[in-house]
Input
Amino acid sequence: MDKELLKQIIIEWQEFSFPNLIERDYRIPLDSMKIITITGPRRSGKTSLIFLLIQRLLKKGIKKEQILFINFDDPRLMPFDAPGIENIMNGYRELYPENLNKINFIFFDEIQSVRDWEIAVRRLYDTKKFRIFLTGSSSKMLSREIATNLRGRAVNFEILPFSFKETLKAKGVKPDKNIAYSQKRFEIINILNSYFELGGFPEIILEKNNELKIRILKEYIETTFFRDLVERYNIKNQSLMRELIRYLVTNISSDFTLNAFFKWIKQTYPITKRTLINYVNYLEDINLFLFIRKYSVSLKQQVIAPRKTYIVDNGFRNAYGFKFSDDKGKVLENTVFLELKQKLIKNPLMELYYWKGYKKHVVDFVVKNGKDIECLIQACSDLSDFKTKEREIRALVEASRELNCDKLFIITLDYNGEEKINSQKIIYKAVWGWLIENAVKF
Output
């Protein structure tokens, strides 16, 4: 790679002006001796998060010349390999020799585009002269691969599309302590309805045209996930993979039994169960679909029981699933899951399960923190039907006794309140308030 071109790219970065950025709810250290890696779906905001980190450095008094940012999705850098990174560093040293004895910061965006990148990064790390930050798209670079390739040198942070609180920030809406009584709550509910339908990818949140939003989401599925998936895993039966994706998108917030799906799909596609298992694992690997296990003290039971299926963004259901109804109940539950997943990412002690009793009653979410069950959560869109409400409550009370947990919640579309059932207090929370309550104390 021509060193003069590399110097040009470095200088272009020094002259770069930051766009308007939306603060993310991630706390990523700037002074760690470990390599910091940031993974997540393409278009989920990894580059913007890097820019936010760089702005924090600048506010701390770090000069921009001490910061090197390279985006390896730049077509001028394709193809690129490990020796090219050494050429970048040589060009940087020649441009800024005064920084040789200072701690400098390196940000490599979409590092998975560089062949044998881990060799060059390990070498830079071993010099102890740099703080190193890397991003990679989860469809191309898995967190476990980072751990293997960097051999204990890295700490990974996973990011998702915007949470609902981040969506409100992007829309310029700032909740306050009186929001539950304010006219502003109707604006928040309208934004929530859009979040239900179109999800939280930053580009979607900022786009004005709803028809274009759907086109963008379809393109995300087609290019960001499907093509990356086919290329990464050399998918032979692409028609089967499409059917599997469509089935899972359509059936979010539901049990997924691999055996049942296999019996159905093999009538159309001549496949083995091992192939289907692999395909499901690939979709989980790239974080398009997220699965939770049944809570049990028996690991065997956790493994053999059906898992519940969720998707990384609500908008994909609208863009790619087979919609036969609005089914706000499924979307509500997926939204609650995504909020809990955001918390799980930030808390390494947190675990998430569902619960099913011997009477077949189900609790949607068991939140475990360390050794303790922190709370039990149901997501229910409509409590006006007596039988539905009775079913949700009965499951909570039964699980509460079995798991020795007295923090019981039902997340609803629009109802807040409390109720005592046989000395057990159940708290009802409207989902929009629950989603923002960590930012505002009511």
About this structure: The chain has two domains: 3-159, 168-436. The two ends are 58 Å apart (CA to CA). The first helix runs from residue 3 to 14. The mean pLDDT is 90.
